[in-house]
Amino acid sequence: MVWLCIGLPATADDADRHWSSRLESRLAGIDAGFSGEIGVYVKALSTGETLSWRADDDWYLASLIKVPVALTVWQRIDEGRMSLDDTLTLAQSDYVDGAGPTNWESPGTAMRIGELLDAMLTVSDNTATDMLIREVGRDTVNRHVGELIDDGLGEITSLVDVRRHIYAELHPRAFGLGGMDFIELQKADDDRHRLDWLEQRIGVDRDAWAMTSLDLAYDAYYSRPLNSGRLDAFGQLLETLASRQALSSRSTRQLLATMTRTSSGDDRLKAGLGSEVVLAHKTGTQRRRTCHAGIAMQAGQSSDEGVVIVACTRGESSLERSEAALRAVGLAIEASGVLLSPDGPSSRRE
């Protein structure tokens, strides 16, 4: 595919071009060889220079929204209103389908806030996320985002409400489903069996639904300003973390350290950036949508000297091909030289 060409050695002309120009050329090649669309935002914090590739479009962010949830919780910790050792009780209504250890715990289990934050960020635990949103309040999370950046991010909802909104596009009765319903729903092998399950569960014949395709339901949901936003706005949010504007120095170190242990993304940006780069990051994945965002630093570099990267894909049904495109974006960023110097090309691959 076209994006594979970005691994070729740089030409003499590349050495005379600014990193953003080199990166833009490579992104054009990736975009041309990808069946969907890519969006990329890069900012070198040491110089303030940026690159935007569809970064002012509205993109569905999926689990990237767990970063502002974490920022809100850690702000409460900075204020002395919460601590990492405080506990929340897992309720039956908290369960949401997805990865992570929290779903294996029994209702009534007391779980440390530090444990929930770790699960939410490192393995993208949805149930842990909804427990934290329940504790601080969804309105508080959205208000806090508005205090950190001017605009550009849509309303953040709970993860169970994401599912409700999607399936309510088929029929409004689906908004009454709970987390355990969606856990059962995800056990279905394919879309046809999911729709069969939903028809039986809500007790409404499919002929009375607004639409009978999950692809159409997701498209309708994606058109709403929920859990979405501009990539440059999300990059600005990451910048407030990197520059210690969002949190105290201690909490900043703790949150960044947690994000460097994120286990997902090995086949996305991280694979392209190379093993020498320290990446404090988060991924997001949903139907025909993938994202990867973080703060990239060389070993020994402070976060405010790093590079903010936000990249998403849309429109491609294959997760493997979407991740390959994000991996190619990582390779292009590394090859541009922005991670080493704002003006010099990378020495590793060129």
UniProtKB/TrEMBL annotation:
Catalysed conversion reaction: a beta-lactam + H2O = a substituted beta-amino acid
InterPro entries: Beta-lactam/transpept-like (IPR012338), Beta-lactam_cat (IPR045155), Beta-lactam_class-A (IPR000871)
Gene Ontology MF terms: beta-lactamase activity
GO biological process: beta-lactam antibiotic catabolic process; response to antibiotic
Matches recorded under SUPFAM superfamilies: beta-lactamase/transpeptidase-like
Domain Beta-lactamase class A catalytic positions: 39-301
Protein name from the UniProt record: Beta-lactamase class A
Source organism of this protein record: Aidingimonas halophila
UniProt lineage: Bacteria, Pseudomonadati, Pseudomonadota, Gammaproteobacteria, Oceanospirillales
